[in-house]
């Protein structure tokens, strides 16, 4: 990944999502991601760019096998404090995952694709290690809130200044170029990012609302279709003589003259 969080950035990241509007946004984002993952006991989940572990926290008590990987030692330290030995943590990049093919049922990229210098390679790696599905959560390029973040970054540099936002169209185009035509499902949330409360949360969770292209957060699920290379086999027919004697019981009989 191109951008690595230092100690201060790791502290600020957690502090933003602890309360208020940040917590409200995180809960909606996690709820959307969970609905795409369909977590089940015994399933293996890899969080690529797990950060401090906020995106893994909702799955800890569900009986899943959880693994996280992140390039930032500071973020991993925070994740280790949060989970102890309940999550297997590794240091590494999304573009070069140290895992075998099909090691996990689900690979998750939650707010990590934005900080990758090679997002297409990160998706390829995620598809390589995931047996069933890849789930992506990213900032929407065309949401008003994210446009304001990018504009603000020109005058006051922060982590968003180093990130790359995506649109639904861009993600789908990237998936097609990498994987061909595969099943893709997407929804958005944070249609009303400056409002909070139980009523707003209920409206945000409506499917009709989540089909908007303009929500601040995009959740997308990809189901990679295995591709097999086949090689034609040459058939060698056996030519039998018409008058070739029969085998088996017929040999034991004589024809009367």
TrEMBL record:
Keyword terms, alphabetized: Methyltransferase, Transferase
Pfam families in the record: Methyltransf_11
Residue ranges occupied by any Methyltransferase type domain in the UniProt entry: 46-132
A biological process from GO: methylation
SUPFAM superfamilies: S-adenosyl-L-methionine-dependent methyltransferases
TM regions (residue ranges): none
Entry's Gene Ontology molecular function annotations: S-adenosylmethionine-dependent methyltransferase activity
Domain of life: Bacteria
Gene3D superfamilies: Vaccinia Virus protein VP39
InterPro entries hit by this protein: Methyltransf_11, SAM-dependent_MTases_sf
Protein name, UniProt field: Class I SAM-dependent methyltransferase
Lineage: Bacteria, Pseudomonadati, Thermodesulfobacteriota, Desulfobacteria, Desulfobacterales
